[in-house]
Write a structure and sequence with these properties.
The structure holds 2 protein chains of 2 kinds. By secondary structure, chain A is an alpha+beta fold. Helices cover 34% and strands 13% of the residues of chain A. The longest helix of chain B has 25 residues. The chains are: A alpha+beta, B alpha/beta.
């Protein structure tokens, strides 16, 4: 492409101390084949307008900071290339379904709280002493949960989720996937401790299986699959409770 | 009323989270807080790829891991620290396993290990090639189970509060609100990571601006061995994204423009079809990055729009191995280089990766200031000496994060009940006023922050790169002085309090200018070549004069005063670094 090709970023601005509603601001940035939307934003920040606020860090798709809505889709801006949007303009907005703090920065405290609620850590009746070595785990046992351990907490799945959009109490795709990440880990004995949250009205049953979360996930985690699988577990469990109310397994 | 905790941990990456858990475990009565400028799971530990070294196999020994580390560090490591490190590393990695880290396994379910650069034995534990990601998320999620650990997510620490030589807390800015808060503590653990962003081309995330180093340095803690900056030999051109050393450990080869395995020309051994420990592509990072410069000088690299490159060849490894052991390498190449390493060569060049130097600490993480502890990349214990071996940094942040946490907990418990004095309160008030004045002053500025930052980065690369000499360093020192003046005129156009990243960029640049100045002055002072510090005007190692750590102290005029501290030798007398031959 020619050296001086340019593309317009149409960026949603929101400065709570200045304005009641978000506004749009356009910036023209170089269109280079290596540049991501994030590179475009950094060009704006460094050379055109230092007041634009957004989060970023690793620029290699692993830290989960730079999720935004690009042309209507939740994406990691470090992994979305400008040339894919040529000739533009490229619309850049904050992630949907979260309160906007400022410009492209959203508040994710709700997720952080839900993450803690699902107890995403190894729970055991008794700790194994370190002197006894590792918990052996075959590659097959690892495959049972590995996919769900790849979640980078980037929030794209929450931004894509139509249920979360309507019901902010919904535990949500990433938190449920991470609960399953531990439930399915052969080292863990904590599934009963996670049951109340996952089986509650705001848990897996709130999901209507649209599958937008799995489509949006940049890391192939498949939260929809995790939710579906837990529904089956929970249903089997309630059936067993019904048949053997005295608590047989 | 200022917020108050027994221990405050600054930085929520691997070292900080490990420290916080250690504090909670050591003394559950202690009130612990983690202050981080990003949500902890965004920390740069997340980007580590290749693995974590700890003796695992029956064919290996602690002494061999120590020797590899000490020789890899060109004998600048403190050997008592290395011995403690190699001894505690296996339990730390095992503890991570018990906490759920998905370490890659052998077919029988036991932990798998891989080879790594400069390591004689296979002892690098790995979680495919996303080891740092899994380690960080395991630590963060485990830390969530300690419900009493308080978190200040997205708070930027602007200064340490020091009274009578003792650190008593911090002043920090909450990004979301712009609120400036005093947070006092009996002990502070610094774990903010490195400073790769002082250079233009780095694997480091944008947040790696040396904040913790600068805060400690200004508060009076000396920085140690700052002249030792690690260039990793294989970064992707343009982005600087790391292609892990594990790619070479699994059999990847480095080729010059003629398809020749050029490392054989640099006393690194003979090319063999399969990887050989401590040889060729599994040599140490300093030597490999230096070899690249010589290839460049000989005209045997390939020019690209983003600088000269050599090529990393993984094609013979096949899709199956690459997908199981190096899936992230393939993902990164496809995404950012638009090529598939299964069938194509990967262009790579040396890239600033890691800081061997940092806040001077002892073996327990204690710094030169009472009440201040440090661990991880921000610290210099030193187990890395003049050149860190790949896969030693993840176990380092666990071993010394835990050690610093325990030491800080004991210190805090022993000094409990001694609340901050009037001097601390006054200092905090001064800092609040300084920040207000700073905002007002820079609102009138005319210089672009990014312009000064870019000039600083270019100065560091040209003056204090892989090879440096008195002339290049002196020129860099002068340019940095000039840049400090320009910094005084930097413009902060953003006048709002809510999530003001313009202001944070200004504060980060201030930190980077202090850190880069300390690097240049330390490098000027060391008249020898050792490990990653290569002086073309002093090409040989000089154990007579420089078997010693540099300690740089902050001077009020922004320069530094350098003194030296002898290296601790226990059992391994300084010798020749031998790679690729017996």
């Amino acid at each position: 492409m020619p050296e001086n090709d340019r593309i317009t970023l149409r960026v949603a601005r929101y400065r709570p101390e200045q304005e009641m509603e978000p506004t749009w601001q356009s910036y023209e940035v170089p269109l280079r084949k290596e540049w991501t939307v994030l590179d475009g934003l950094n060009h704006v920040k460094d050379h055109l307008d230092g007041t634009l606020s957004y989060r970023w860090s690793c620029r290699m798709g692993i830290c989960g900071s730079c999720g935004m809505t690009v042309n209507g889709e939740p994406q990691l801006t470090c992994s979305a290339f400008l040339t894919d949007f040529a000739p533009g303009p490229v619309r850049v907005e904050p992630l949907a379904n979260f309160p906007v703090v400022r410009d492209l920065v959203v508040e994710i405290d709700d997720f952080m709280n839900k993450l803690t609620e699902v107890k995403p850590w190894i729970i055991r009746a008794e700790d194994k002493p370190l002197d006894e070595g590792e918990f052996p785990q075959t590659p097959e046992e690892m495959d049972a949960y590995k996919q769900y351990s790849m979640c980078i907490n980037c929030m794209l799945c929450y931004a894509a989720c139509p249920v979360y959009a309507l019901d902010p109490d919904f535990v949500g795709p990433a938190a449920i996937a991470l609960a399953q990440r531990y439930n399915l880990d052969s080292r863990d004995e904590g599934s009963a401790d996670r049951r109340d949250v996952l089986s509650s009205a705001a848990g897996v049953w709130a999901c209507t299986l649209v599958g937008e979360c799995t489509t949006a996930c940049p890391k192939g985690v498949d939260p929809a699959g995790a939710i579906q699988r837990y529904k089956l577990t929970a249903a089997t469990r309630s059936l067993k409770d019904l048949l053997w109310p005295w608590g047989q397994r | 009323m200022p917020a108050s905790h027994d221990v405050v941990v600054i930085g929520g990456g691997g070292a900080g989270l490990r420290a916080a858990i250690a504090i909670a475990e050591t003394d559950p009565r202690l009130n612990v807080a983690i202050i981080s400028k990003v949500y902890p799971m965004r920390s740069h530990t997340v980007s580590a790829e290749g693995g974590a070294a700890a003796v695992a196999g029956a064919d290996d020994s602690l002494d061999e891991h120590t020797y590899d580390t000490v020789s890899g560090g060109d004998w600048l490591c403190d050997q008592d620290a290395v011995e403690a490190f190699v001894q505690e590393a296996p339990r730390e990695l095992l503890r991570l396993e018990h906490w759920g880290c998905p370490w890659s396994r052998q077919a029988d379910g036991r932990i798998a290990v891989r080879a790594f650069g400069g390591m004689k034995k296979m002892r690098t534990w790995f979680a495919a090639d996303k080891t740092g990601f899994h380690l960080l998320h395991t630590l963060f999620q485990t830390a969530l189970s300690y419900r009493d650990i308080v978190r200040y997510d997205e708070w930027f620490v602007s200064t340490l509060l020091v009274d009578d030589g003792k650190v008593r807390g911090v002043v920090a800015i909450e990004l979301a609100s712009g609120r400036v808060e005093t947070i006092t503590a009996n002990a502070v653990v610094m774990s903010t990571g490195g400073c790769g962003r002082v250079y233009p081309f780095t694997t480091n995330a944008s947040i790696k601006t040396g904040d913790g180093m600068a805060l400690a340095y200004r508060a009076g803690a000396p920085l140690k061995d700052m002249e030792f900056v690690q260039y990793h030999p294989t970064g992707l051109p343009f982005t600087g994204i790391l292609i892990t050393e594990a790619a070479r450990a699994e059999g990847g080869r480095l080729l010059n423009k003629d398809g020749y395995r050029y490392l054989q020309d640099y006393d690194l051994g003979k090319p063999e079809p399969v990887p050989v420990a401590r040889s060729m592509e599994l040599g140490p990072r300093d030597r490999l990055s230096q070899a690249f410069v010589h290839e460049l000088d000989k005209g045997r690299t390939t020019p690209t729009p983003h600088g000269p490159v050599v090529h990393l060849d993984l094609r013979h490894l096949g899709a199956e191995l690459i997908d199981s052991k190096l899936p992230f390498v393939r993902e990164l190449c496809l995404k950012y280089q638009n090529l598939d390493p299964v069938t194509e060569l990967i262009p790579v060049r040396p890239v600033v990766h890691y800081m061997m130097g940092g806040i001077h600490t002892d073996i327990h993480g204690a710094t030169g200031l009472d009440g201040l502890y440090a661990a991880g990349e921000v610290a210099c214990v030193s187990i890395n000496g003049a050149n860190r071996l790949g896969s030693n940094s993840l176990p380092e942040l666990l071993v010394f994060g835990a050690r610093a946490g325990r030491a800080a907990a004991e210190y805090a418990a022993a000094t409990a009940g001694t609340g901050p004095g009037a001097a601390v309160v006054a200092q905090a008030r001064d800092e609040q006023r300084r920040l207000e004045r700073l905002v007002a002053h820079h609102a009138e500025g005319r210089e672009r922050i990014a312009d000064i930052r870019t000039a600083m980065q270019d100065t560091m690369e040209s003056g204090a790169g892989i090879y440096r000499d008195r002339e290049s360093l002196a020129k860099a020192a002068e340019t940095l002085l000039h840049l400090r003046e320009r910094y005084g005129r930097a413009a902060v156009g953003d006048h709002s309090r809510t999530f003001n990243t313009d202001l944070i960029a200004l504060l980060e640049l201030g930190c980077m200018l202090d850190v880069s100045t300390s690097i240049v002055h330390s490098a000027l002072s060391r008249g020898e070549s050792r490990g990653a510090h290569q002086r073309t005007d002093f090409p040989a190692r000089d154990d007579e004069r420089y078997l010693a750590h540099s300690l740089i102290h902050h001077e009020p005029d922004g320069t530094g005063r350098v003194e030296y501290l002898p290296v601790t030798i226990t059992r391994w007398a300084p010798g020749e670094r031998v790679y690729g031959r017996q």
